[in-house]
Design a protein that fits this description.
2 domains; Chloramphenicol Acetyltransferase; 23% helix; 448 residues; alpha+beta
């Protein structure tokens, strides 16, 4: 079945702060300016995640706190840039990281709640924001704040959570997965790193001189007043509603069958992501659709990993943002009239555009224009992320996932117990229409 599940209202987790400090690498690291690619620089926003663990009598929260702090110190030797601070290179006009070992944030807190009182972890409570804080109150202005904060919160039952708030400039999804696996290994006494990170971001540097070979409508050049530095990829902050659209295997099979009805290309691969993303795109486009704006274009941006698409391929251990967006665009009237298979085909075929030549052209375009992604909606898939499979000394997490934020322009798609979940954040009226479009798409036997 397909379920429409509003995220629970804000819940006060009754947190009490025990410790708030900075953690630096266990060994002295080189003080240097760390180069950031043009892809890195356009993704300047925080991504909070939280990982929940059941109580383990061999690892009470106090022991976990000591072990986690030690693991952070060890792993930062290999990820020294995480402990640095942003600075603007005045000569190039580009953002870089001052690797100065200033440290990442480390917070220890307790909650008066039980883990069981938090409900189903797959439907993130707004209170989960308290489990992955972004800044440390005991530090100064933004320039002094760490680029990454790790938070351990213990609950009355002995269970606990590890929250991570990390600037996207530092890590993409694959890099974050590798970092967390490495962090888990360093919590053991005798385990080596799972994957040694490749920290050379010059592998995605622009060519000299830049050579833009393709049009790039998926990006735009912001009109910034002189002296304001680099643009920030963000959206307007307003009051939002949050809903998880849960698609079981039955619902996904229904979507795949609809996609196969008149698919235009025999080479089009119909996947969980392509059908879910196509449905989300349709609902988002029609949520703002009226007789007066039927010719409005709706553009979906789908985040795609570049590592295997480049020539030569980047190693899986590449630590940085090796992602670009594949775009699909159509007017709302066509999105409403076309068969679902057409939308799936557009979503599935769009990543094929991201060849080595195209990716290099994007990077060069960004070198010239310092641009940002341009689309009505973006989907970011965590379906292949293995956060829930990471083994710590105290066991695997019972759930790992994103924390709701103010981003109304991004839909997070992540694994469900039996299928996939899509976390959507929209203003109330738009959410009401989105939900209606979602429900109307399925027969009553599929929707709850």
């Amino acid at each position: 079945m397909a379920f429409v599940l509003p995220v629970p209202p804000m819940q006060d987790l009754k947190l009490k702060l025990q410790q708030s400090t900075l953690v630096s690498p266990a060994k002295q690291t080189e003080n240097k300016a760390f180069f950031l690619s043009n892809i890195d620089q356009m993704l300047n926003f925080d991504v909070p995640t939280v990982h929940f663990f059941k109580a383990n009598p061999d690892f009470p929260p106090e022991t976990v706190a000591k072990s986690l702090k030690m693991a952070l110190e060890r792993v930062l030797v290999h990820y020294d840039f995480l402990a640095g601070r942003f600075k603007l290179n005045l000569q190039s006009g580009c953002l870089e990281i001052d690797c100065n070992s200033a440290g990442i944030g480390f917070v220890v807190a307790t909650s008066e709640c039980l883990l069981d009182e938090l409900g189903d972890f797959a439907y993130p409570n707004l209170g989960f924001r308290q489990l992955a804080i972004r800044t440390l109150d005991n530090l100064g202005p933004e320039v002094d704040q760490p680029l990454c904060v790790t938070q351990l919160t213990s609950f009355k039952c002995g269970g606990f959570s590890i929250g991570l708030s990390t600037n996207h400039v530092l890590l993409d999804g694959v890099s974050a997965q590798n970092f967390i696996e490495n962090l888990a290994t360093q919590a053991f006494d005798d385990k080596p790193l799972a994957i040694f990170p490749c920290n050379d971001r010059h592998l995605l540097a622009a060519r000299s001189p830049p050579h833009v070979e393709f049009p790039h409508p998926e990006f735009f050049k912001p009109d910034l007043p002189a002296g304001l530095g680099l643009p920030v990829f963000d959206c307007e902050r307003e009051e939002l509603e949050y809903t998880v659209f849960s698609l079981t295997s039955d619902a996904i099979n229904y979507l795949k069958d609809k996609a196969r009805e008149s698919i235009g290309s025999t080479t089009t691969k119909i996947t969980v992501l392509s059908v879910v993303a196509a449905l989300i795109w349709r609902c988002k486009a029609l949520a703002n659709y009226t007789e007066y704006n039927k010719d409005r274009a709706s553009t979906l941006l789908n985040v795609v990993d570049l590592r295997s698409r480049l020539n030569p391929p980047l190693p899986n251990s590449y630590c940085g943002n090796a992602v670009l967006v594949a775009y699909s665009s159509a007017t709302c009237v066509y999105i409403e009239q076309w068969p679902f298979s057409k939308l799936v085909e557009m979503v599935a075929e769009a990543p094929k555009r991201l060849t080595d030549e195209y990716a290099k052209s994007v990077i060069d375009w960004l070198e010239i224009n310092k641009g940002l992604p341009c689309g009505e909606y973006m989907v970011s898939s965590w379906l292949r992320m293995r956060f829930g499979e990471v083994v710590y000394p105290w066991g695997k997490p019972v759930h790992s996932g994103p924390v709701v934020s103010h981003r109304k322009d991004i839909c997070w798609i992540f694994p469900g117990v039996d299928g996939a979940n899509a976390l959507v954040s929209l203003p109330a009226k738009e959410m009401e229409r989105f939900v209606a479009c979602f429900r109307e798409f399925f027969p009553k036997s599929i929707i709850n």
